[in-house]
TrEMBL record, chains A, B:
Lyase keyword on record: yes
EC primary class: lyase
Residue stretches in coiled coil: none
Protein name: Orotidine 5'-phosphate decarboxylase
The keyword Lyase is assigned to this record: yes
Gene designation: pyrF
InterPro entries per the UniProt record, alphabetical: Aldolase_TIM, OMPdecase_AS, OMPdecase_type-2, OMPdeCOase_dom, RibuloseP-bd_barrel
Start and end residues of each Orotidine 5'-phosphate decarboxylase domain: 23-284
Amino acid sequence: MPNSSPASFATRLNQAIADTGSVTCVGLDPRKASLPAPLRDNIQGDRPESWAAAYTQFCCEIIDVVKGIVPCVKPQAAFFEQLGPAGMVSLGEVIRYASAAGLVVITDGKRNDIGSTATAYADAYLGSPTHPGPWGSDSLTVSPYLGRDSIEPFVETCDARGGGIFVLVKTSNPGGGFLQDLKSGDQTIYQTVAGLVTELNTERLDADGYGPIGAVVGATYPAQLAELRQAMPHSILLVPGFGAQGGAADDVKPALDQNGRGAVVNSSRGIIFAHSRPEFAQKFGDANWHDAVRAATEEMNQQLRG
Amino acid sequence: MPNSSPASFATRLNQAIADTGSVTCVGLDPRKASLPAPLRDNIQGDRPESWAAAYTQFCCEIIDVVKGIVPCVKPQAAFFEQLGPAGMVSLGEVIRYASAAGLVVITDGKRNDIGSTATAYADAYLGSPTHPGPWGSDSLTVSPYLGRDSIEPFVETCDARGGGIFVLVKTSNPGGGFLQDLKSGDQTIYQTVAGLVTELNTERLDADGYGPIGAVVGATYPAQLAELRQAMPHSILLVPGFGAQGGAADDVKPALDQNGRGAVVNSSRGIIFAHSRPEFAQKFGDANWHDAVRAATEEMNQQLRG
């Protein structure tokens, strides 16, 4: 391992936001049925290895389009795992390609476990360009159900490697409140998790006041998003639910700090499958899917700057 | 996909318990530093592919020892993921080898996500011999933080494929109560999750009264284990925390039903690294690590039958 101290994850991500003038996070969620026709047509038989190669090509070509105009990408592990082991080989290739292109990589795995098993996940997915882990990923989404001592091993790895995590606080799905909105004493469960996140960031703040423990807060609950921006002033927020899930630009602006940083807003389907969106289908279609990705990314950048 | 209806996961697992006369689940948690010396000594350099090959050999040789004397194995995804993509190729090989040996496979991934992403995880890891998924796994551990609508896609795949899930209810770690023990109204969070599990099993019961939605309840909280056995009468319980984590045979017996079924008790380190246990190290040592695995498995079987 290099002797130099790793650069803080929050510093790197906020710098990437400043460099690109964008808070758009492009979600890499490949799905067989949604791939553009030119990629689907290349599939030999129905072998996982063929689909995995198509996923790699699809995601790497998206990365070529969006690098330099967005700060980060978020590969969704589930869709790669759905192909079996060959899909995980593709995930590894996509992460390394994105990182080499200068994008911050948020691996969306919603992992967690206890003790040394949590350490294994942290070792797998947290890192930085100077202190990379086995996958070459910068950061990971992490579930809090197993409690404080399941989060702490990730925090230790953030310190050692310069990686980051995004703890699930308030998720974007309609049923997310089943546990998250339950009230115990004065606090909801999501507020309890937010309090833990803020506590863990203390003493780990960079010059801008951000720590390595980010939080997932859905765009689909704008009131809670504003509340949680206040409750977690040291966390970069990862905001899913924009676009296809219903969140609008005005809904997510409360996530940003006064400098327009401190949050990234994810869109997956709306960008990567833009060739199928009614308003883009006629103009671009499957054959010009790269142009549709570029147009959708620039549109989202514009909406979030407005 | 075959036309025949898949066999219920609970039926298959309880049958495996009856066939082997054992409720022991062998946790496959390979770790570089703990592998027996003959396997560590074979590593060429420090390449992930070399370690992955060692993990495959280690786990498959354990499977050769324990098949026929335990009903199931539980590979821990985190330790395979720690090796990067090569580790996931090893995980795939280990799952298929275990399944071909007639063992029920519980993939311990503590996965979950929302909507169609949860469906992707379910598609990846749930299945049965007649209706296998991409990994060849029977079942998956699942985190409930994202709520009811994140569990339902797994239930649908259980119905279609004959697979199962184990929802995290009360975990074995010291800090597990951080959220799980919080009380909202009359119920703790873990009781709320247990209620959801029982509700989802209803209308999915096999002839013995078990459904496909199992639950993880740690051996380290014996009082809650007895309480949760009552609260989830239709769930097979997956009980971690036995042995190295402190749970004893008397602690876990309340998990079993009157026929001695309805639960499996996991041990990882205590079995797979038995060659390092003080009481076994002198008798077996690294060279005879297979014999140590066999002795530890038979010892645990005996303790749980007593």
